[in-house]
Amino acid sequence: KSPFVSKTELPKYYQPWMETARNVPKLIDSHSLRTHIHQMPLLETHFMKSHRELRLAHLALSVMTMGYVWQEGDRDTVKVLPRILAVPYCEVSQRLGLPPILTHADAVLANWKKKDPQGPLDMENLELLLSLPGGESVRGFFLVTMLVELAAVPGVKAIPKVIAGVRQGEVATVTRALDSISLAINGMKEAFKLMHGVHLCCRWKDNPCMAEGLVYEGVQAEPMEFSGGSAAQSSLLHCFDELLGVKHETKSGTFLTRMRDYMPPAHKQLIQDISSHRPSLRDFVLERNNAGLVSAFDRCVSQLVSFRSYHINVVSRFIAVPAARAKQLRSQDQGSEPDQAIIGKAPTALEERGTGGSAIMSLLKTARDQTSNVTIHGPLSSTKTSDLTLISELSSRLSL
Ligand code: HEM
């Protein structure tokens, strides 16, 4: 079987889950999802055998849980997830080694299918298996992120070639494999350009609307806390960072390391394997001091920096600027009608976290700058210019 196929159906026994999960946006619209979930049967999880079935079940249970918690927006969240969801959700999560919350591995990696199975993997021919309220913007957000993942595939496949080449001392093999990686990272940035909106997945960790976390009824009496879905949970950049020897400083490093607990264990293991190989790629490049090899290495770093710069621009455009604008309007407290529209659309998550906006921008910027530090021929001059204008425009608004 091709690895690029998501499971789209569960055994018939699980129909109540799949039917409810497919209707989450509609049931939220009619404010009836919670009532609907209370009427579902408590299902056993042992009829699911394969990894892909479990991944689809995790996705379905995650979507229902997100809908259940946020049905009334962030003003009326719940403190307890009923056992009908909580018990099977935690069982499935445990079998997969994933936390019981919607992760990148659910919303993006296990959540798509081709409309025409013979057709291409592109936006027109892809659809989500399950969605959340937000229509086209949710579709675009998850599917474009999936296309970014897809663009990275030749790069990920080249990593073992780099490692083998380093072990065997083959400069030409390593150079060629590094070229595939920089090409793939460039492709990731190109795919990212299809992104036209945002969707913030909510969390019950460090979230003022759910300061006490969430009790998973029938699992444990104490509330649990989990971070929300984010592409920081994608293994891609972690893999490339480890290969190139990028060392993240304490704060962003702690965050990124925590995000690895939100990945399927095999992904986390891959990152660890890449990081533990010796001699390290960077040491090999320094030791051989071959001009072609050094520039292939530096091109990879440069592409990774450029991807992170583009990401910073996207986050500025879609989150930080609208959040700052909405905050400003809200503090004036009497917006005109168009102003109210801006307030309504802005992602409140950042505003309400107070310093959250600037903390996130600073985390992203630090991660980008740490990447730039691993070049052999010194920090990259081109890296800081592309988002400089936006950042300085933002600085005044967000006191970065
Ligand atoms: C509209 C699209 C996107 C927005 C608004 C966005 C937003 C964010 C935010 C706010 C963070 C900070 C950490 C957090 O709160 O989780 C973050 C981190 C991160 N995001 Fe995105 N993101 C987007 C798309 C993507 C895509 C498509 C990728 C690549 C697959 C990606 C990869 C990352 C990575 C790797 C981090 C960790 C920081 C780093 O390693 O540089 N993001 N993103």
UniProtKB/TrEMBL annotation:
The reply on keyword Iron is: yes
Report the Gene3D superfamilies cross-referenced here. Answer: 1.20.58.480
One example of the protein's molecular function in GO is: metal ion binding
| Chain residues that bind heme b | H311
Gene Ontology process terms (BP): 'de novo' NAD+ biosynthetic process from L-tryptophan; L-tryptophan catabolic process to kynurenine
Pfam families linked to this entry? IDO
What InterPro entries does the entry give?
Indolamine_dOase, Trp/Indoleamine_2_3_dOase-like
Q: Name one GO cellular component term.
A: cytoplasm
Ordered alphabetically, the record's keywords are: Heme, Iron, Metal-binding, Signal, Tryptophan catabolism
Q: Which PANTHER family match?
A: INDOLEAMINE 2,3-DIOXYGENASE, INDOLEAMINE 2,3-DIOXYGENASE 2
- Family indicated by similarity: Belongs to the indoleamine 2,3-dioxygenase family.
Q: What protein name is recorded for this chain?
A: Indoleamine 2,3-dioxygenase
List the source organism. Denticeps clupeoides (denticle herring)
